[in-house]
Specification:
188 residues; 78% helix; mainly alpha; globular
Length: 188
């Protein structure tokens, strides 16, 4: 009896949740609009929950990397929204710049360590993880220095990072739909 994988590829869902939410947050970081309910809702529902769903489905498929990445970044988005809204809801202190810098630095470190596993995967995924590590570290630097210019640079870099994830998601859907590589991803 052959055990056929009956599950669809959950990675495009997770990549779109990550990519679209990252672009929107970084449009804010680049100074194009204020942080508001649109970004927070995307952080909870698409950046957060959709990635967690994708991670659980990757678990079902036996993909440790996909499970770890999607569940972790889904929980990143939920924790980021929590850091923003919990002080107003619960009356707890907001994190200071040093605490936010530590938070962002650790996410950058996690991402950079995950990047090494992408070296056995496609080039597009390598771009997503490397640019994400850089984004986290630029945001941490912006927090610790208080430099709005660094945060704007991080915003521009984050827009690129988010669009690279969107491209990979669309490429995976398109290539699977057509049964051949229509949009190149630099297969390993």
């Amino acid at each position: 009896m052959v055990n056929k994988d009956i599950f669809a590829n959950p990675a495009p869902l997770g990549l779109m949740g990550f990519g679209m939410t990252t672009v929107l947050l970084n449009l804010h970081n680049a100074g194009l609009f204020e942080l508001g309910s649109m970004i927070l809702a995307m952080g909870i529902f698409y950046g957060g929950l959709a990635q967690i769903f994708a991670g659980i489905l990757e678990f079902k498929k036996g993909n440790t990397f996909g499970t770890t990445a999607f569940c972790s970044y889904g929980l990143f988005w939920l924790s980021l929204v929590g850091l923003i809204v919990m002080p107003n809801i619960l009356g707890v202190n907001s994190p200071n710049a040093a605490a936010m810098a530590a938070y962002l630095f650790m996410w950058g470190l996690f991402t950079f360590m995950m990047f090494f596993s992408t070296l056995k995967m496609n080039r597009a995924l390598q771009v997503v993880f490397l640019t994400l590590a850089i984004l986290f570290w630029l945001l941490a630097l912006g927090e610790i220095t208080g430099s709005g210019i660094i945060t704007k640079i991080a915003g521009i870099e984050g827009i690129f990072c988010g669009f690279s994830a969107i491209y990979l998601a669309i490429a995976e859907v398109t290539n699977e739909t057509y049964g051949k590589e229509i949009l190149p991803i630099g297969k390993q």
